[in-house]
Amino acid sequence: MAKRSNPPKKRLDPVELWIGFFLVSYLLFPGFSGYSAISPTKTWLFCGLTGLLILLGVVLLARDIRMRRWEKPRPSQIAALAFLGFTLISAALSTVERGNPWFDPTAHEAALTVSLYVLLFLVVSRWGMPTERLFRVLFWSLTAFCLVCLLQMLGGNPLGLYPGGLNFYDGYGVIYKGAYAGTIGNVDIVSAFLALAAPMPVLRSLGQKPRQAWPCWALALVCLGILIWIRVLCGLVGVALGAALCLLVLCPDRLRPRLLLLLLGLGLGALVLLFFVDLPVGLFHELHEILHGRFQDSFGTGRFFIWRQMLDRIPRQLWFGVGPDMARYSGLEPFIRYENGAEVARATVTDAHCYPLHILYCQGLPALLSWLCAVGLALRHWVLARRDRAAAVLGGGLVCFLCAMLFCFSSVIVMPYFWLCLGLLEARWHHLRKEKEYEQKG
After folding, report:
1. What pTM was estimated for this model as a whole?
2. Could you give the CA distance from residue 226 to residue 178 in angstroms, rounded to a whole number?
3. Residue 175 to residue 344: CA distance in whole angstroms
4. How confident is the model at residue 36 (pLDDT cuts 50, 70, 90)?
5. Residues in Cβ contact with 212 at an 8 Å cutoff, skipping those fewer than 6 apart
6. Per residue, what are the HEC states of 112-125?
7. Angle at 419 between CA 417 and CA 422, to 5 degrees
8. Strand partners for 336
């Protein structure tokens, strides 16, 4: 697979130091008020940490201009800036009466939050580098996170995150509302984060001897076990679909046609089986009904209900949406879950549970196209640089995360990792290009 390794980097530069501190503090610090206040805690922490990174970026930019090392913005950076610009226009034109499209510490992604995402990406893609030290920091932080999850799943309450006397199994509507795990919170967001993080140790260990690789595989298996335990399908679907794409991209060129035929055959066989056999499992039963043209709003734990409402409304606000993170105030009907004809749950629709659709509904078509352009360019660079180990690790994690986010809601608790990995992948690609140009000149 990836033969090239990261270049040695003995001196710790400021951006690398910031990324390492961010990976540890933002992932592992849940605040002091438990899960009830974890969203505003993470929001303010993200704003503070990213503010420091932006100040650092301004200093580095001034230094580069003074030393005449100014570089023109790259296509992915221009696309990210366009995404930011259309998001700000959407916030300015929002006609939703309630809420604040610019900033809300209890919301998921208002305009200020999206602005910080893009600025984080710009600084990291210009001055960052995915070093061996950063991968080690990520893996040790991920190990600590998994340890907290495992202790919770054994019935404990490490860090006192659950309400007094309660534990992980009192969630899912049993005693208290919602289900939470680890130092992240909502299990949907936990599953999206694990979809991003779980493939990285495996991809990092490919080509290594078993004695060196087994800790990485053990960590990945623990992540997968937690994904299964928390019973959130979006993360498992993300890992499964992302793993198939990773195999196609990272496998030797001579094996790719056969692997593609194998995956297509398995996919077609699964569809045929589901068409003729109605398996008594929620997801498979719903897929069986969909293949027969029978759709219900309750499918996908209410996602079809949310998607139908949003798709009906999008043509009326196609260009700039309802405003960043204004879905909750845009007049969507609440989702109601029934069991045996009785109402058992009612929830306000705050997110599309499909990130591209969420951007389209909240920020409009130009913002979605800009975001897709930035992501598409980064994934193209992943494919072109697939023999480089660092690029393979970052691209594989991003692909699995993007697949998971087709069915998960976005949040300031998890999206910074996406933009951070996107920036590191772009930084690595630019470094490889400069290295290649230098070799050709030499």
Report:
1. 0.93
2. 17
3. 13
4. confident
5. 205
6. HHHHHHHHHHHHHH
7. 105
8. 346
Distances (CA, A) of 345 to 124, 187, 301, 302, 348: 42, 18, 12, 11, 10
φ, ψ dihedrals at 351, nearest 5° = -155, 155
Torsion-angle region of 147 (φ positive above 0: left; ψ -120 to 50: alpha; else: beta): alpha
Q: Structure tokens of 325?
A: 């993170």
Q: Dump pLDDT digits (tens) for 320-342.
A: 999 999 998 888 888 776 666 66
Strand segments (E) across 248-363: 335-339, 342-347
3-state secondary structure of 163: coil
DSSP E strands, 297-422:
335-339, 342-347
- Of the candidates 34, 99, 53, the one whose C-alpha atom is nearest the C-alpha of residue 327 is 99
* 3-state SS class at 186: strand
Of 208-217, 337-346, 371-380, the one with minimum mean pLDDT is 337-346
SS3 108: coil
User: Within the chain, how many helices (H) and strands (E) appear?
Assistant: 16, 4
Pairing of the two strands 335-339 and 185-186: unpaired
Beta strands, E only, 61-201? 180-181, 185-186
Token pair belonging to 231: 């019973």
State the amino acid at position 149 in one-letter form. C
The residue type found at 166 is L
Angle (CA) 27 33 34, round 5°: 60
Confidence bin at 82 (pLDDT 50/70/90): very high
| Structure confidence by residue, pLDDT tens digits, 212-270 | 889 999 999 999 999 999 888 899 999 999 999 999 999 988 989 999 999 999 989 98
For residue 412, name the pLDDT band (cuts at 50, 70, 90).
very high
* β partners of residue 339: 342
CA–CA distance, 442 with 309 (Å, rounded to integer): 59
Q: What is the mean pLDDT of residues 280-292?
A: 80
Strand 180-181 to 335-339 pairing: unpaired
The three-class DSSP label of residue 347 is strand
Q: Residue 323: left (phi > 0), alpha (psi -120 to 50), or beta?
A: left
Q: Are residues 182 and 190 in contact, defined by beta-carbon separation less than 8 angstroms?
A: yes
Q: How far apart are CA 425 and CA 113, in angstroms?
A: 21
Token pair recorded at residue 394? 């970052």
